[in-house]
Amino acid sequence: MPARRPLTIAEFTDNYGPAHSGLLYAVQFLEEQVLEAGHRVLLVAPVADGPNPHAGHPRRREIRLPSVPIPGTQIRLSMGQDFDYRLAQMVANPPDLIHVHGLGPIGMLGMWVAERTGRPLVITWHTDLEAYADHYWHVVPFLNAAYKVYELHHAESTWAQLRKMKLKRPRRGGAQVELLQLAAKMLTDADLVTTPSDKTAKRVLEIAPTAKVRVVPNGTDALPVLPPVAKGRGPRLIYVGRISLEKGIGLMLDAFELVRDQVPNVELMIVGDWRETPVKLRRRLQRAARFGGVKLPGQIPREKLGAYYASGDAFVFASLTDTQALVLHEAAHAGLPFVMVDHELRLVIDPGVNAVLARPNAVSLAGAMVSMLNAMKDPEFAAAASARSREMAAQYTISRQSKEFVEIYEDLAAGREVALTEGLDPDYGRKVFPRRRITATFESPDPAALEPARSRAGRWWPWSKPAPASGR
């Protein structure tokens, strides 16, 4: 039922196309629910092509700011053109609440609007900052420039002063440090920081220990059920999502080369826009598609993805950088089990029941893939894994997440206190920008440890069955 007093919620995002991404869909799902609740949406984003399902809604309007493409990233950034005019426009007619999605120049603009108008500021942290800085450090000078612009506005400086600034390109490590400083400032200043997972909430508190944090998992609903796309004689491992540097695609390809030696006729299908990836990765994908048992169907419209999920035997996720990964929820709705290297993303993951976890190296990941494919030959295990995936996915729907956000908006706009998430313990001992090396010490095994372990579902893991007696 519509609220008594419709609010104007301003959604500021630096990522609204052209690339299809979890962040893009998360913002659009939120827009839909805000509009259904009877409120108004003001979208502030860069000029970019891409999905825009709510364009033309009578209670929604857009401010699109001039943008430039960042080579090799499928990102368009707004570099400050028209910011003065748009800032004055929004200060003269302020929204009731400002919601900033992530780190970037338009996020800075949202902070200025909140500062100048005194309206509540919510920041949703969608980014694993360390991974972003490590993989996209060449973008940081642009973000650093935006931060300097923010400081100038904060000091009532003028664009004439800005034009006199000399912005030098920082070294790689320096870029990362400046990015951390920028993030700490944003997160500390916000009235509320929301994150899609406990993993991301802990990252926020590592960067900004005094930030006010609430975990609100992104929701997604099951995709339309469609007949599966055709596959070969063997099993199919599948990945769906953005194909970029930080998604672990190289690791996935390395591991799959080893899997092909163990599993006859196995396929790896990578669904996404591979043609816009950096040249080195794109060429490797092309070689793998030609000679290595890899299928590249390209970018598939979201409403048709159900046919691709339905064709897979297991979903492989080699990324360590995601803060929630909506594709995991889509795969779980489709009943797929998982092979993962990220041990912290657990919303739809139940290790030993619907998932096998690996270390982030090719040998471990390949072993996990083979183990899962062997396990799926057991109909009882396959049915239990599929049921568990669907059960866990059902807890995180779009309506549930969006309803929670609408309540947060209404409480903050009315000056009411918003409950924070308790029990978040950041790992202050965790290395920043790690290059970890795994070591192990082997000792004589305890005979009891050789007994096959039961999963939480009370079943024997097929690959943990003891070897048959030799007869000697």
Count the E strands: 15
Looking across the biggest beta sheet, what order are the strands in?
3-2-1-6-7-8-9
The radius of gyration computed from the alpha-carbon positions, rounded to a whole number of angstroms, is 24 Å
Percentage of residues in strands: 5-15%
Name the overall outline. Answer: globular
Helix- and strand-based class?
alpha/beta
Order of helices and strands: EHEEEEHEHEHHHHEHEEHEHEHEHEEHHH
Number of helical elements: 15
Explain the layout of strands and helices.
Elements: E1 8-13, H1 22-36, E2 40-46, E3 60-65, E4 67-70, E5 75-78, H2 83-92, E6 97-101, H3 105-117, E7 121-124, H4 129-135, H5 140-154, H6 159-163, H7 172-189, E8 192-195, H8 198-207, E9 213-215, E10 236-240, H9 249-260, E11 267-271, H10 279-291, E12 294-298, H11 306-311, E13 314-317, H12 326-333, E14 338-340, E15 355-357, H13 362-375, H14 379-393, H15 398-413
Parallel strand pairs: 1-2, 1-6, 2-3, 6-7, 7-8, 8-9, 10-11, 10-13, 11-12, 13-14, 14-15
Antiparallel strand pairs: 4-5
